[in-house]
Amino acid sequence: MDEQQLTRDLIDRLFDLHDQVQVALKTLLRELRLTEPQATALWRLGSDDSVTASGLAERLGCDASTITAMIDRLEEQGLARRSQSPVDRRVKLIRLTERGREKRDRIVRYATEHSPFTRLNSHEQLQLHSLLNDAAGPRSVQTNI
């Protein structure tokens, strides 16, 4: 197998893993009354940090208008709130509410329990973790302003 074919196969397998996680989460998300993008936003917001709207958009790979509408829906559901940055009044920070953290924790717990990575032993998971970190490169999103 040449390098280009190997790269395509790796990307295909990443899509397969993504699809497996999404299928496993589908029932839970229906119960929680969340869409997949909303669940991803909760996951990427984290449980204790706050992030700017542009930072969240970067984490999710979407534009400002999309993220604004998503944050509006999360606020309407009582899952996130906007607050003013203590450093710059023009900047709004997004943070999960207690209810948002509870839903996020359920999603994380369920995804972890039903993860395709449970097929790997601890040593294999650590190897894969290291390789994925190398492939993904550094995270560049600034969370607090």
SSE class: mainly alpha
Low-confidence stretches: 141-145
Distance between termini?
47 Å
The overall pLDDT, averaged over residues, is 89
Shape: globular
Record the strand order, biggest sheet: 1-3-2
**C-alpha Rg (nearest Å):** 17 Å
The largest β sheet comes out as: 3 strands, antiparallel
**Strand proportion:** 5-15%
Name the helicity range: 55-70%
Fill in the CATH topology of the domain at 38-135.
Arc Repressor Mutant, subunit A
How many distinct beta strands? 3
User: Which series of helices and strands comes N to C?
Assistant: HHEHHEEHH
What is the level 1 CATH name of the domain at 38-135?
Answer: Mainly Alpha
Write the CATH architecture name of the domain at 38-135.
Orthogonal Bundle
Q: Considering the protein shown, what is the CATH homologous superfamily of the domain at 38-135?
A: Winged helix-like DNA-binding domain superfamily/Winged helix DNA-binding domain
Please work out how many helical segments DSSP would assign: 6
Main attributes?
3 strands; 6 helices; 8% strand; mainly alpha; 145 residues; Arc Repressor Mutant, subunit A; globular
Characterization of this structure:
- 19% of the residues are buried.
- The protein is mostly helical and 145 residues long.
- The protein is globular and about 55 Å long.
- Helix 1 (3-32) packs across helix 5 (98-113).
- A hairpin with a 7-residue loop joins strand 2 and strand 3.
- It is 63% helix and 8% strand.
- It has a domain at 38-135: Arc Repressor Mutant, subunit A.
Please give a quick description of this structure.
With 145 residues, the protein is mainly alpha-helical. It has helices at residues 3-32, 36-45, 53-60, 64-76, 98-113, 122-136, and strands at residues 51-52, 80-84, 92-96.
